Amino acid sequence: MYNFKRKDKLSFVLKASLALLAFSASFFSSNAYATAAFSRQTGESCATCHMQGYGPWLTEYGTKFKLDGYVAGDAAKVPTLLNNFSAEIVSSVTNVASAVPQGTYFQNSKYASNAQTNVLNDWDAIYYTGRVLPKVGVYFQINFTPQTSRSISLSMADMRFADHFSFEGHNVQYGITANNAPTMSDTWMTSFAWMYPYTTSSGAAYSGPS
Question: What is the pTM of this model?
């Protein structure tokens, strides 16, 4: 049986991560910029809804899209059931000055190139987002942490119904949301659920003894 050396293991993990990223991008996107279901549904780039192209802060268009229940747009070229799926892979390479104690966050003997330079698949996510009915839309994010905590969790969930009516010449919007976080429904994406840091490396929390 072939035994991985440190450099071999680092090279293998990096190549595997790149291969998975390439696979997910090719499977879930129809254009270079349209890697999310919202982008495919609306036919718009990420920068149309998100400031700085990624977010989480929303533009005026993005705010209205969320207020309207994630239902706008008919640009998707595949059925809604398939279009609403997206995926994300988050990996990191962390180097610390002092060796991380074995078992602090994960088993170094399995997942690290050595006790100071750690290569991790921090977490992966499957999203189901977009219109499900003419006036009902969802944002579901299921997270997988295959190396650190080895767990599956419902990270974010937001189901929205929204509609409009006119009253004495004024447009009135109403709706209801069911979500799993107190500030998930923030339409400006500036409150607790959307605050920095957006993601961190699981191997960066411990830097060793001083």
Answer: 0.72
